[in-house]
Amino acid sequence: MDRELLLLGLLRREKMHGYQLQEFINRDLEYCTDLKQATAYNLLKRMAGKGWVTTTEEQEGNRPPRTVYQITEQGEEIFQQLLRENLARHTTMRLPDGIGLAFIEAIPPAEAAELLSQRQKAIQEQLTLLQLAHQHGHTQGGLLLILEHQEIHLNAESTWLTHVIR
Prior knowledge:
By secondary structure, the protein is mostly helical. The protein contains six helices and three strands. A three-stranded antiparallel β-sheet has the order 1-3-2. The mean pLDDT is 89.
C-alpha cells in the first residue's frame, strides 16, 4: 500500500495529471521509490474505481486531453490510515548488492577490493547528487527527510566499504 500512500499524498498537495505525478516522483522521490509510469496509471485507475480519487479531463490548447486526478474525502481517510501505518511500521531492509558479498571469496582479494572500490565510487557519486539536490532546494519538509535518510545510509555504506576493502 506504500505506492497508494505515495500517490494519495501527492494528490493531497494539488490535483495533477499522470505526467505531473511521474515527473515529481522521478525528480524528488527517486531515492525512496521506483514507481514506474505504467504502474502509477494502473494504481490511479484502481483508486478511482474505489472512490479514492476522481478524474476529470482537461485540455490545454491544441494538446490532447489529459486525465487529471484529485483526492476525494474517502481518499483522504485512506491516506491518513496508510500514513499512520507506514510511519509506525519497520520493514527489514533488503540489500540486493549484498548477494555478491556472499560469494566474494570466489575471486582474488585484490580484485574484490578493486570491485568494491568501484562500488564505493558510485556511492560517492550518489552522495554528490544528493548534496546538489539539497543546494538547489528541490525538496522541503518531509521530502527533505527522505534525502537526509538516504544520505545517512549512503555514508554508512561507504564507511563500511572502507572497512571491508582494508
